[in-house]
Amino acid sequence: EERSEEMISCCLCGASGHPSCLQFNSALTERVKLYDWECIECKKCEICRNPGDDATLLFCDDCDKGFHMSCLDPPLDGEPDGHWSCLHCVEGSTYWEKI
User: Fold this and answer.
1) Does the pTM exceed 0.70?
2) Contact in structure between 17 and 37 (CB atoms under 8 Å)
3) How far apart are CA 58 and CA 70, in angstroms?
4) The CA-based dihedral angle spanning residues 82, 88, 94, 99, taken in that order and rounded to the nearest 10 degrees
5) Residues 6+ positions from 3 with CB-CB distance below 8 Å
6) Residue 37 — left, alpha, or beta (φ > 0 → left; ψ -120 to 50 → alpha)?
7) pLDDT tens for residues 48-95?
8) How far apart, in Å, are the Cα atoms of 68 and each of 14, 15, 48, 75?
9) Burial, 94: exposed, middle or buried (Cβ in 10 Å; 0-12, 13-18, 19+)?
10) DSSP string, 52-97
């Protein structure tokens, strides 16, 4: 039996997508349901809240929030190789439980 997949919708523009089409794993899908998720077109840096240059906006592999490399402390000079997690995700799930 085929199971339908719940869509994830952008809190700003309403654009929706299946988590599998967005290439979200099950853990990431559950995490983005905990906050007002923004699609790639609407996503802003979580620190400065500006969209800025897409080439410098990193997306956390664990929560999909965006961060400018220059806004991080310490700033990053280039895109990291492989899996990258924001400080909130590195510190653990207690941050997400407060939202």
Assistant:
1) yes
2) no
3) 10
4) -120
5) none
6) beta
7) 999 877 788 999 999 999 999 999 999 999 889 999 999 889 887 554
8) 24, 23, 8, 9
9) exposed
10) --GGGEEE-TTT--EEEGGGSSSPPSSPPSS----HHHHH-THHHH
